[in-house]
Amino acid sequence: MAKKQKRKSFDAVWNFLTLLVFLLVSAVLLVQITIYFNPYAIFNPFPPYEMPEVVVLPTATENPVELPEVWTETPEVVEVLINTPEPTATQEMILQDGTPIAEVTPSEPTATPFVGYYSFKVQNSINAINGAIFKPDLGCNWLGVAGQVFDLQGRPVKGIRVWLRGSLNGQQVDYLSLTLDSSPYGPSGFEITLADAPVNSSGKLYLQLLDQAGIPISDKVYFDTYDDCERNLILINFKQVR
Hints:
By secondary structure, the protein is α+β, with helices and mostly antiparallel strands. The protein is 15% helix and 28% strand. It folds into two domains: 10-51, no CATH class; 77-107 and 117-240, Immunoglobulin-like. It has one helix spanning 2-37; strands at residues 77-81, 90-94, 120-122, 127-129, 143-150, 161-168, 171-178, 189-195, 201-210, 221-225, 233-235, 238-240. The strands form three sheets. Strands 3, 4, 5, 8, 11 and 12 form a six-stranded mixed sheet that branches. A four-stranded antiparallel sheet has the order 7-6-9-10, with no helix packed on it. The longest helix has 36 residues, at 2-37.
């Protein structure tokens, strides 16, 4: 009789262990199935990377002006008169792919200081790199300046005017570009071609950001160029500071 009771007790233990293993296996399967259908479950140790939501930003001015609906898909070269010391001098405004068609070149900002007004500054140090990284078909037969514009949260800002002025090889330079949705340099990128070969210059060229009303929203950022195929692309990024 005692032997039978011992046998029953032994069987009960094995039945309990079997039930416990079954429950554990079921729980593991349930967790795996849940993770399969919902990778963002809180108990998933390796959730997938969540892509940030694309946000379309207004221009960085307090009273934004809508961008004129006059876009063209191909670059155009338009001759415009510029007030330079030479009485007969004219300049060409080179419009990059995807920028609006030519407008009248903005007038030089007045001498009145914009105390506390400028809201964009250079994000990092100015870099000079090999332009063949972005233009392998041109190699050393090109000189340009490019970059991006970001807001306070580091998000790209499109529709900002980028004004390049100064002199290169003894000739006056006056170009106007625009930050675009997409570019070889990333969202809110811009690019301006300076020459068809690397040229040395020191502090003779500068970039300045303008809003849609042509009002400066950054200081003049002067930069150098180099007669070096390894440094024929100048990269300048801007970030909003207020």
